[in-house]
What we know:
By secondary structure, this protein is an alpha+beta fold. It contains 19 helices and 18 strands. The protein has a domain at 388-521 and 557-586: Isoleucyl-tRNA Synthetase, Domain 1 (Orthogonal Bundle). The strands form 5 sheets. It has a 6-stranded mixed β-sheet, sandwiched between helices. α2 (55-64) packs across α3, α6 (214-226) packs across α10 and α13 packs across α16 (451-472). It is elongated. The termini are far apart. The model has no long low-confidence stretch (mean pLDDT 94).
Amino acid sequence: xxxxxxxxxxxxxxxxxxxxxxxxxxxxxxxxxxxxxxxxxxxxxxxxxxxxxxxxxxxxxxxxxxxxxxxxxxxxxxxxxxxxxxxxxxxxxxxxxxxxxxxxxxxxxxxxxxxxxxxxxxxxxxxxxxxxxxxxxxxxxxxxxxxxxxxxxxxxxxxxxxxxxxxxxxxxxxxxxxxxxxxxxxxxxxxxxxxxxxxxxxxxxxxxxxxxxxxxxxxxxxxxxxxxxxxxxxxxxxxxxxxxxxxxxxxxxxxxxxxxxxxxxxxxxxxxxxxxxxxxxxxxxxxxxxxxxxxxxxxxxxxxxxxxxxxxxxxxxxxxxxxxxxxxxxxxxxxxxxxxxxxxxxxxxxxxxxxxxxxxxxxxxxxxxxxxxxxxxxxxxxxxxxxxxxxxxxxxxxxxxxxxxxxxxxxxxxxxxxxxxxxxxxxxxxxxxxxxxxxxxxxxxxxxxxxxxxxxxxxxxxxxxxxxxxxxxxxxxxxxxxxxxxxxxxxxxxxxxxxxxxxxxxxxxxxxxxxxxxxxxxxxxxxxxxxxxxxxxxxxxxxxxxxxxxxxxxxxxxxxxxxxxxxxxxxxxxxxxxxxxxxxxxx
Length: 587
């Protein structure tokens, strides 16, 4: 039976166009991983959705003069459009304002209440007399109590990543009125009793985490061992979000961080309903049905505590009831991709818009560069010069040039078909064995979510084929020994046929193009599509993925001699300085 792998992707706020830092950190890596796992035969369910609740959406709506729902729908559709262009293969990409998500969130809330992991208490909170409102976390900013960052948010610092209570901020100011004359007032809220989860989380984090990234495990252990967990409010004085399922609290809503992480679970439930198999989600989530399923949460650095402490803690609390859910197997969080010495930020306007650049540059160029510079273990600075250099000197000059010159020569000199080889000599055999071994070496790196290392290994193998061709020089050999030239070209084409699969998780669009140029008709991957779903809360656009006709397998196959080639075309567009922002002045 194929292993069940759930790929849970961070739920983005729909408060603006997403930027390339977010794509590099949280959205491209899970797609590469999911594509690879599907090719190995694993039963992958990749889910996520737009986080349509919370103060970031409310602030954006206020700024644009739209309703909260209008802003959520506008930027949800923009993100879906980016996913289609980039090729992010979500089995379901939905959002948090569906009836399904409301139902599942309220069921989890009720379970936590019944098992004693939620309690009511009065909480002191910042109040802005200028607008007569309590200030939810994102409506207040100030100086971080830990690192001194001057523009820290009310719940978490963008600079150091630490979580804290908004009252711990120094010099707080209201984002609604700009006032610094804030008051502390008491209001009643529901709290998640994280104190009860401290010891169970410590036990959980101690075992079976050898495969976790050092930055993730060290941060998590430090938080659990050095700072005792305490109750955390999971409701807010807002009128936008999921209502509280117990009692009568018309002016309160479930807080966004609580309902958003439940989305990994609720999206699987929704996917099963849309697939016509309402109980199918259990194969990934139900620990009583399939405890061997592996759950991965792909996120950015700022979301580590939510996914290694709060979300597992919520699952532990839920599991005190009659049914049990699987806990995360891995949380491969990336560090930050920075811009101009600072952090990318949608809310602060420091961005390179994802949809904007996809309208100008090839998606695979971005997939390549963002993987090559991925901030897997440390922050990385993005520059346009580096983007152009890597795209031109690595992607175009290595892989693109190899495919173009080999297929172009074969198409022109061997009547548009894969030439039949003669007897392979020892060097040919050793060369093919080296490329074939990439399925094991590269596969191990993809499987361990070491995607940058996987790219380097495939690039090395691609360069190895270029070296083989340079050594054999079939364009010279064909003049004196056509049969030997045919053998060399066949060997190179076979290597390219394998490399297209090794590259495919990172470069799906160009790998499909190489696949067709080599004469294949059935696609490597499946088909993305959007669907309008109607429920009690309205009409929702969702993104889905159909891989029923996909043929890509993580194994070397034999390229058939005599197979008809298609006329070659360049895979990639070389970037010119005048077309790259910030480099025009060099002309």
